């Protein structure tokens, strides 16, 4: 009985299937809890609401913490899947606990427990721990292919992005050093040291340009022009990396979806006993490319097997 329940929750929580009513209902409930929690947090950040509904905020916080705690326990327990060996069960559960999403699930409720255990100023101001619990918004990545795609983009390009960040930091230091040399006497309050100049260099290199600190000397202005030109290329580098990787990833996922639809179509075709033997015979005499065309028409446009075969035969002759 326990094995069946663990298998059921494993498939629902770790490998959700839209065709399973239990899996779909459970994941919709968890996603709704995250959205409601975020909505409650935004609503209570308004001063008049936060002061008026303090009791409601405490009750809702306890409710969400209980829900996310139960979810975490179920995820850890069911992470073993269908494993029987104690060592394999333990290793799978530890793997989930150490995974990025396992840490997100843990941090979504653990900081609140510290606030409950040490109320007031027993060990300092623990209210900042509430900000850590905001990571629960990352739990929505499980229910959105778009957000998951963004996370994969970061993972696939982390070495390239790290290199771009290193180049940015080197240029930032060089720009801060140069502007310090030109502006240190004219504006000692803003460019009195290289660390002070870092703010201007970072804002300029990223092409943000707040305008709160600007060079006033001729040499500083000329140097700023060089920094601006350099910043345009450096700031555009991560955007170009993401754009190219995003297009490739979208194409890859589309190919995978089409392949899955075609496999499903072939499986349905092979398991369908009601089709006429004549159509089966015609299909078997098709070339491999023509058979793929039949599968494509069925998967992409929802045509019947007979309609797809007739279309291919029509263009064949």
What does this protein structure show overall?
This protein has 317 residues and is mainly α. The protein has 3 domains: 2-143, Four Helix Bundle (Hemerythrin (Met), subunit A), CATH 1.20.120; 159-253, Helix Hairpins, CATH 1.10.287.70; 272-316, no CATH class. The protein has helices at 2-13, 21-44, 47-52, 54-78, 86-98, 100-107, 110-117, 129-132, 145-156, 158-183, 188-191, 194-205, 218-271, 277-285, 288-301, 305-316. α1 crosses α4 (54-78) and α9 (145-156) crosses α13. The radius of gyration is 29 Å and the shape is flat.
Tags for this model:
single chain; 317 residues; mainly alpha; Four Helix Bundle (Hemerythrin (Met), subunit A); Helix Hairpins; 0% strand; flat
For the record, the count of structural domains works out to 3
Helix amount: over 70%
Low-confidence runs: 122-126
Biggest β-sheet strands, sense, barrel: none
Output the CATH class name of the largest domain.
Mainly Alpha
Mean pLDDT across all residues, rounded? 80
Strand content: under 5%
Count of separate DSSP helical elements: 16
This entry's quaternary arrangement is single chain
Radius of gyration equals 29 Å
Count every beta strand, where a strand is a DSSP E run of 2 or more residues: 0
Distance between the termini: 59 Å
Describe this structure in a few short sentences:
Residues 122-126 have low confidence and may be disordered.
Q: What's the arrangement of secondary structure elements?
A:
Blueprint: H1 2-13, H2 21-44, H3 47-52, H4 54-78, H5 86-98, H6 100-107, H7 110-117, H8 129-132, H9 145-156, H10 158-183, H11 188-191, H12 194-205, H13 218-271, H14 277-285, H15 288-301, H16 305-316
């Amino acid at each position: 009985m326990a094995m069946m329940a663990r298998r059921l929750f494993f498939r629902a929580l770790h490998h959700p299937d839209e065709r399973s009513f239990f899996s779909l209902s459970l994941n919709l409930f968890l996603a709704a809890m995250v959205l409601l929690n975020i909505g409650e947090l935004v609503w209570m950040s308004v001063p008049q609401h936060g002061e008026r509904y303090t009791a409601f905020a405490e009750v809702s916080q306890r409710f969400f913490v209980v829900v996310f705690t139960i979810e975490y326990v179920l995820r850890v327990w069911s992470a073993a899947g269908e494993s029987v060996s104690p060592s394999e069960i333990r290793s799978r559960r530890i793997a989930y606990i150490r995974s990025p999403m396992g840490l997100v699930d843990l941090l979504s409720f653990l900081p609140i427990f510290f606030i409950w255990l040490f109320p007031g100023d027993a060990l300092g101001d623990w209210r900042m721990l509430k900000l850590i619990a905001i990571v629960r918004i990352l739990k929505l990545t499980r229910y959105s292919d778009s957000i998951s795609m963004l996370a994969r983009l970061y993972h696939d390009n982390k070495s390239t992005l790290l290199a771009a960040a290193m180049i940015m930091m080197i240029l930032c230091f060089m720009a801060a050093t140069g502007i310090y040399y030109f502006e240190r006497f004219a504006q000692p309050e803003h460019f009195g040291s290289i660390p002070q100049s870092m703010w201007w260099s970072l804002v300029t290199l990223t092409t943000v340009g707040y305008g709160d600190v600007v060079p006033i000397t001729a040499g500083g202005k000329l140097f700023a022009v060089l920094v601006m030109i350099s910043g345009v290329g450096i700031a555009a580098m991560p955007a170009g990396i993401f754009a190219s990787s995003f297009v490739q990833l979208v194409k890859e996922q589309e190919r995978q979806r089409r392949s899955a639809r075609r496999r499903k179509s072939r499986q349905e075709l092979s398991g369908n006993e009601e089709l006429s033997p004549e159509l089966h015979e015609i299909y078997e005499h098709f070339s491999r490319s023509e058979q793929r065309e039949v599968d494509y028409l069925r998967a992409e446009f929802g045509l019947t097997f007979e309609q797809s075969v007739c279309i291919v035969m029509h263009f064949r002759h």
